[in-house]
TrEMBL record, chain A:
This is V-type ATP synthase beta chain. It comes from the Bacteria. It holds the Pfam family ATP-synt_ab. SUPFAM superfamilies: P-loop containing nucleoside triphosphate hydrolases (SSF52540). HAMAP family: ATP_synth_B_arch (MF_00310). GO terms for cellular component: proton-transporting ATP synthase complex. It comes from Streptomyces filipinensis. Belongs to the ATPase alpha/beta chains family. Residues 135-351 form the ATPase F1/V1/A1 complex alpha/beta subunit nucleotide-binding domain. Residues 357-453 form the ATP synthase A/B type C-terminal domain. The keyword Ion transport applies. The keyword Cell membrane applies. GO terms for biological process: proton motive force-driven plasma membrane ATP synthesis. Keywords: ATP synthesis, Cell membrane, CF(1), Hydrogen ion transport, Ion transport, Membrane, Transport.
UniProtKB/TrEMBL annotation, chain B:
NCBIfam families: PRK04192.1 (NF003220). It comes from Streptomyces filipinensis. Belongs to the ATPase alpha/beta chains family. Keywords: ATP synthesis, ATP-binding, Ion transport, Nucleotide-binding, Translocase, Transport. Residues 241-434 form the AAA+ ATPase domain. The gene is atpA. This is V-type ATP synthase alpha chain. One of its GO terms (biological process) is ATP biosynthetic process. PANTHER family: H(+)-TRANSPORTING TWO-SECTOR ATPASE (PTHR43607:SF1), V-TYPE PROTON ATPASE CATALYTIC SUBUNIT A (PTHR43607). Pfam families: ATP-synt_ab (PF00006), ATP-synt_ab_Xtn (PF16886), ATP-synt_VA_C (PF22919).
Length: 464, 598
């Protein structure tokens, strides 16, 4: 990753936490990538946090354990951290420093790119307007993922967000156009890592997958680099090579905790819940790398997954994520308790770009109206269910009772799906119709009459 | 557009020469012009004593712009506006001897710029560190209004510029004297000298320091309504031209959507839209929509009256800090030509975060939640750039500031929200429950306020709508009453209420669904002219009055509740943006149905 090694500095003045202060340097720039060689010959890596006259403060990625003042040599690469990019990554697994973690040879790309990326010019952005189909009915129909969107999964401890993330990563497609998934795992347990690798083995064998894995016992600073490596590789696959790329990043809460840990080690002033004040901008520097660029064929879609500590949606990580992303898919412990997978809460979930990514020519002509009507009907059903809890079912009007039936039908016929079941959009939409038609036609005011005539012939309505 | 190469008053040069003359070796001088320390956006440079606070400094060989924020001894702290990766001690630092300035001109209209007003239209797909600012070569028709030999003062009109919005060529704020040359009518590029006043050349394009408010003759009371076309706002929490508004709302409450609606439809002459630390896709969307939509008043494209400053959340954080001041400067430039300008900043919370970030790097003592103690005064100073004014040239103009606030976790007690609420004249509080129920715009009627309402009711009365204040008062009372009863209904059920109270609950629903809600996506409903807003509200209130009469006459409340009110609910969609007849027709249909129940 580093360029040619030129000058090695041996003047280590101070070692503190993950930081090394090197003295006597010259011409070392801020944010440069450094290589550190220990007494034992072991090589470590670092980033320049600050340069002050002839001092450079270097943050060591792998930690400073075993480093001493006399036997440590530091060389600076003259550029920010870079990673080789290219199709050579497809089918490969990398670690949090961008090195192969699958026992294979180094990935040789045609070019190296800085992992920090560069902001897309807002004027050159193409507004997103085509879907990524995930094969998960609740996502495809109600919170459609749109190419170039950033749509997080908000989950809580104990919910199957990793299963859902892996299922989406395994099944997602873009209507037959070149497609790839880049999966970044931050702070995952070894069991979770194994689950991810198993679940995505087929996609990896098909050379449509790049995995970057940082396990819970890997260095914390590498956790901060993992999503950046993934996004840098993904940007090249998308914008230079014309693929539609889906980047799945899990778990963003572990990432943010790493950021907090590193910030505390640097002695920075803490803001809300001791997270650094720049948490919003830092998260944005990841999430905003999604998008489409005018005149280029590819797209970069981001699906971050985060666990809300104690299920609290006002916690800084989900809160700031929600301010940046374009909607959210919320998993609910209540739905999970009923034994339903995926436990998506349809009313709390929202895809802000859905209006532009669905409909005739994109998904199916009836899709936007069906989704809007289903959400409206489910909202009413929830109110009715709360009312029924208070005053009893017997006191409900016939229309209200129909809404309770609709809620049951939704949980029985629409939502449940196997973790390896790739449901087609047509199947999902037909199920949505089936759920909607538990209501009388008069309650389906958001559906145009011609659509209703096609899907629910008046004859059938009279029978009811 | 900042102009890195432009020579300013050469304060630095003079100082350096004096220093050399004082006997220091020349090598020392070269030695003093470099970077000493780099820590993210904070750069420390060696500087001669002539460098002043807030001076612009170009850093490194790429000339990254930065601003002097502290001077201690012979070093100065510089806040860099761009990514400082690769900057090293020993790299050159070049003080410009002038503060951060932007180039103002007619070519701003319709353009998209970054936080330092550099055009993004001619930048590449990816924004790397700054290239040279380019100026557009368009020519603008100019018609002189003065003749040679006339004496003019600061702010006087020298001629008309036929840009997309009619503009004027003014005598710059600090200039007066005799016109010794004036260009004849014709088309000129924006940087061509068009006049000479008191020995100085006057061009359409001029530079102005972003942090210095442009001078005015005096401030005027803000008492003319700004029609936003959004009923929830115009009806309940109206804003005057030259006033200030804050729009706090958690994520998903429709803040950006409401601000975009106002950018599209409000009846100002020029809109300055500052996307400050917000989403890139959203900026792309607003840029595309403005380019497609037609201005209902001029017939031109809405983009042509808009200046967009796009500093998305992943663009350099410190440029975000400058972007709100840049936006205010652009707004004041157009105001001085006698125009009404609306400055929209989305979101001021991200701007405040940039303040916090830099204060933290400077090692300032943190106050609440890590924000610097100066947060309140900086917020107040920004909102004070709003005003209705008599310009130096005697015209009237205004800058209205509308700032979004993004409270973390929806917590309205956090510092940015809490301070902002104190400084603004109007607050449009967005309510998560309303948004969750898909009630848009989700402006809460219980937690918002408008301190302009009294002045504006007089203005509406003068403009021929004496019932405005009465209508507003009735709607507010009716909504509050319906809210109070809704809490009661949850406890005891609707059937336990007396008939008149049941009609109050119904009235609340009718007001919300028929008048207050507004669909941003519907061509008929996205914009509502004052007459349509008044007609919708009057229709609902008339229907409510009739309902009360009917129940008073003995009809059961449930019979009234079962009446089909849907024509009234659909009236906002059925009537065009400025139509009232379909509203009246819907009202009469419903009144007829009520009559049948009696």
């Amino acid at each position: 990753m580093s360029g040619p090694v030129e000058v090695e500095y041996t003047g280590v003045r101070e070692l503190r936490g993950p930081l090394v202060v090197v003295e006597g340097v010259s011409g070392v720039g801020w944010d440069e990538f450094a290589t550190i060689v220990l007494d034992s010959g072991e090589r470590r890596h670092g980033l320049v946090l600050e340069v002050d006259r002839d001092l450079a403060v270097v943050q060591v990625l792998e930690d400073t354990a075993g480093m001493n003042r006399t036997g440590t040599r530091v060389a600076f690469s003259g550029s920010p951290m870079r990673i080789p990019v290219g199709a050579g990554w497809l089918g490969r697994v990398g670690n949090g420093r961008g090195e192969p973690a699958d026992g294979g040879p180094p990935v040789l790309g045609g070019s190296y790119e800085a992992v920090g990326g560069a902001p897309i010019n807002p004027v050159r952005r193409e507004p997103p307007n085509d879907p990524v189909l995930t094969g998960v009915g609740a996502v495809d129909v109600l919170t459609t993922l749109v190419r170039g969107q950033k749509l997080p999964v908000f989950s809580a401890a104990g919910l199957p967000h990793l299963e859902l993330a892996v299922q989406i990563a395994a099944q997602a497609t873009c209507g037959g156009e070149p497609f790839a998934v880049v999966f970044a795992g931050m702070g995952l347990t070894h069991a979770d890592t194994a689950f991810v690798r198993d679940g995505l083995a087929a996609r990896s064998a098909a050379r449509e997958l790049v995995l970057f894995l940082n396990t819970a016992d890997d260095p914390v600073i590498e956790r901060l680099l993992t999503p950046r490596l993934a996004l840098t590789v993904a940007e090249h696959l998308a914008f230079a090579q014309g693929r539609h790329v889906l980047v799945v990043m899990t778990d963003m809460t572990a990432y943010s905790e790493a950021l907090r840990e590193v910030s505390a080690a640097r002695g920075e002033i803490p803001a809300r819940r001791a997270y650094p004040g720049y948490l919003y901008s830092d998260l944005a520097s990841l999430y905003e790398r999604c998008g489409r660029i005018r005149g280029r064929p590819g797209s970069l879609t981001i699906l971050p997954v985060l666990t809300m500590p104690a299920g609290d949606i006002t916690h800084p990580v989900p809160d700031l994520t929600g301010y940046i992303t374009e909607g959210q898919i919320v998993l609910s412990a209540d739905v999970q308790a009923a034994g339903t997978y995926p436990p998506v809460d349809p009313l709390a979930s929202l895809s802000r770009l859905m209006r532009k990514g669905t409909g005739a020519g994109r998904t199916r002509a009836d899709h936007p109206a069906v989704a809007a009507q289903l959400i409206a009907a489910l909202a009413r059903s929830r109110q009715v269910a709360e009312l029924a809890d208070l005053i009893g079912r017997a006191a409900l009007s016939p229309t209200d009772l129909r809404h309770l039936e609709l809620q049951d039908a939704f949980r029985d016929r629409f939502l449940p799906q196997g973790t390896d079941e790739d449901r087609s959009l047509d199947d999902s939409l037909d199920r949505a119709w089936e759920v909607l038609l538990t209501l009388p036609r008069s309650q389906l005011g958001m559906l145009p009459a011609d659509l209703l005539d096609t899907h629910a012939p008046p004859r059938r309505e009279e029978r009811r | 557009m900042i102009t890195p190469g432009a020579p300013g008053p050469d304060r630095f040069g003079a100082g350096a020469l004096a220093h050399v003359a004082g006997g220091a070796p020349a090598a020392d001088r070269a030695d003093r012009l470099h970077i000493l320390r780099v820590a993210g956006s904070l750069v420390e440079i060696a500087c001669p004593p002539t460098v002043a606070m807030h001076d612009l400094v170009l850093l490194g060989s790429a000339g990254l712009p930065g601003e002097v924020v502290a001077i201690h001894g012979d070093t100065a702290s510089v806040q860099a506006y761009e990514y400082t990766g690769g900057l090293a001690p020993g790299h050159p630092a070049d003080p410009q001897g002038r503060p951060l300035t932007v180039r103002l001109g007619p070519d701003l209209l319709g353009g998209v710029f970054d936080g330092l007003l550099r055009p993004l239209g001619c930048a590449g797909d990816l924004l790397t560190t700054s290239g040279p600012a380019t100026t557009e070569a368009a020519a603008w028709p100019f018609t002189p209004r003065v003749v040679r030999g006339e004496r003019v003062g600061a702010g006087d009109v020298l001629g008309d510029v036929g840009a997309r919005v009619p503009l004027r060529l003014l005598v710059p704020p600090d200039l007066s004297g005799e016109v010794t040359r004036i260009a004849s009518a014709g088309a000129y590029p924006s940087d061509a000298p068009l006049a000479v006043v008191g020995g100085d050349e006057v061009r359409m394009a001029q530079s102005w320091p972003v942090r210095k408010p442009r001078p005015v003759a005096r401030r005027l009371p803000a008492d003319a309504p700004l029609n936003t076309g959004q009923r929830a706002v115009d009806l309940l929490f109206p804003v005057a031209r030259g006033s200030t508004v804050a729009v706090p709302g958690g994520f998903g409450t429709g803040k950006t959507m409401l601000l975009q609606q106002i950018a599209k439809w409000c009846d100002a002459d020029v809109i300055v839209y500052v996307g400050c630390g917000e989403r890139g896709n959203e900026m792309a969307d607003v840029i595309e929509e403005l380019a497609e939509l037609t201005d209902p008043r001029t017939g031109g494209r809405l983009a042509e009256r808009t200046v967009t400053i796009a500093n998305t959340s992943n663009m350099p954080m410190m440029a975000r800090e400058a972007s709100v001041h840049t936006g205010a400067t652009v707004a004041e430039y157009f105001r001085d030509m006698g125009l009404d300008v609306v400055l929209i900043a989305d979101s001021t919370s991200r701007w405040a975060e940039a303040l916090r970030e830099f204060a933290s790097r400077m090692g300032e003592l943190p106050a609440e939640e890590g924000y610097p103690a100066s947060l309140a005064s900086q917020l107040a100073a920004f909102y004070e750039r709003a005003a209705a004014v008599r310009t130096q040239g005697g015209a009237t103009g205004s800058v209205t500031v509308i700032g979004a606030v993004s409270p973390p976790g929806g917590d309205r007690t956090e510092p940015v929200t809490a301070h902002t609420e104190r400084f603004v004249r109007c607050l449009w509080s967005l309510d998560r429950d309303l948004a969750y129920a898909r009630h848009y715009p989700a402006v809460s009627w219980s937690e918002s306020f408008s301190r302009d309402a009294a002045a504006l009711s007089a203005a509406h009365a003068r403009a021929g709508d004496p019932g405005w204040a009465e209508r507003r008062g009735r709607v507010a009372r009716q909504l509050a009453e319906a809210d109070r009863l809704a809490d009661l209904v949850e406890l005891v059920g609707i059937t336990a209420l007396p008939p008149r109270e049941r009609i109050s609950v119904l009235a609340g629903r009718l007001l919300r669904e028929a008048a207050i809600q507004q669909s941003a996506l519907s061509p008929a409903d996205a914009y509502s002219a004052p007459a349509k807003t008044a007609a919708l509200v009057d229709a609902v209130l008339t229907v409510v009055d009739r309902c009360l009469e009917v129940v008073d006459a003995g009809t059961q409340a449930e019979v009234v509740e079962a009446v089909d009110f849907s024509p009234l609910l659909r009236a906002r969609e059925a009537a065009g943006p400025a139509e009232t007849a379909p509203v009246t027709a819907a009202r009469d249909t419903v009144l007829a149905r009520l009559a049948e129940t009696a």
